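During the first year of the project, the team set up a workflow for recording each protein of interest as an amino acid sequence followed immediately by a discrete structure-token representation. This format lets reviewers and collaborators read both layers of information side by side without switching files. As required by the reporting guidelines, we include two representative entries from the current panel. The first entry is reproduced here exactly as it appears in our internal archive.
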Amino acid sequence: MKKSLTQALGFCAALLVTLAACKKDEVRAVLQPGASPTLTSSGNSFVLTQNNSANRAVIYTWTPVTFGYPAVVDYSLQFDVKGGDFSKPYVIDAGAKLADTLSVSDLNAAFQSKGLVSTSGTPTPAQMDVRVIASVGPAAPSVNSVATTFTATPYSFCAQPAKSQSWSIIGPGGVDWNTDVPMTYNCLSKTFTYSGQMNAGDFKFRYGADWTANLGGASSTGGPLTQDGPNLTITKAGSYTIVLTPGPLDPATKKSTGGSFTIK
């Protein structure tokens, strides 16, 4: 009996030691962030325009970060004015990816958020710092890369007029005589711009997708335009930038009072 009791007590003691060891092993799983990520970019100087707002501006890539145990690591790009402390950064979340492609609009929004967009009418270059930060949760310490500086000339966002109040390109030089090619309005210069492919063929400008106000001219290489003027012509298909400066509409007839254009 005494021997059985002694064996039972020995078993219980061994079990307690085992449980204590397991508990001790559990608390050893602590957060151990690895090396900081290294951030690289496809460029460090940009000219941003609203006409190209949907185009790719830059690709950022970075090295992965480990935290000492299997975990989903979230990355985000942070932007601040040059020399800023990132206490109130502009943030673009990248999720678990190790790269992110930003459009012209994305990058311009970062400059707008920090008040770095010129309102004088002339776009002005400005500088920002960018870094990538890695995190496994709000309660855990994060790890960030060294900040790098880049330069861009941002644009002041201009709300586009409705189709019924906008100028467009019409004709086979664009698509055909039934399809309007939209032009982008510039609030500062009061002009309409199209940048892209043009076909060899005739074209004109018209207002509100209607022929009441339309513009043509004698020279297809740029110059003055008149209401109901002759067709303009693209002699060779290719990529062009066309800038239209329209005159005001006649309030009585709703027709154009003329204008001018450039083509490059």
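The second entry, processed by the same pipeline in the following quarter, appears below.
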Amino acid sequence: MKLSHTFFISLGVFCLSTATTPLPLTEESSARIVNGYAVDISQVPYQASLRRRTVGGWAHMCGAVVVSARGVLTAAHCGVSYVDQPTSVAAAVGSSQRNSGGTSYTISRFLIHELYSTMTLEHDIALAITSQNIAFDRTVASVSIAPVGMTIPPNAEALVTGFGRIATGDVASSVLLAAQVKIVDQTSCLKAYLRIAAITPGMICAIGTSPLRDACQGDSGGPLVYDNRLIGIVSFGEGCADINYPGVYTRVSEYESWIYQKLTEI
């Protein structure tokens, strides 16, 4: 069975759209936060935006997360098309605005997980290396990575942030949005996606209710944080903020050793 999904490249609600091949990384095919609230970058200083060079300047394409002075984590599907042209992408930090403000650092390399699958979206994680050190201040800081084996109880509240769309097919947010979502137990998530995608141990699911809250196009690669630790990276979903399909994230704790190994290669 071919996977049907929507990548979450902009903030809003996690969404999936039907596609049999990987979607191009554009604002239209990225995830966003649905039913979120505006948040200042100083409250989530680890949030970054991957912006691609366009004829008209630089445009947001994916979220990312600052994890060191030279690296930002993102989804593999955000960087796989730019492995051979990394300098056409920049990591913007320290801004609550989608396409302006903050400081931008050119990407020198995209390190895609070696087992990443474009068909199943397993191992949907990548490290983007910046060409120079990121300067930290009150609006720019790294986030702690969830350690291997970290247990996150079902219904625990986590925070997802991003610049994606505010609803399926809607416009993207011009400012940084945040939403509280609850962790969905693995068995329930597996059953929800039974006919659509395989939910593996390297994935974690979450959704917000009353009102429905989720990531959406444009949020892909962005952070899911619990207890001040990065536990997830926005990956995919079936539509946005659909009560029947929680948003799916890459489970960061499963990749702790991979992340630190890649950071030593900088």
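For the second entry, the following points were noted during internal review. The first strand starts at residue 6 and ends at 7. Residues 1-32 have pLDDT under 50 and may be disordered. Both points are flagged for discussion at the upcoming steering committee meeting.
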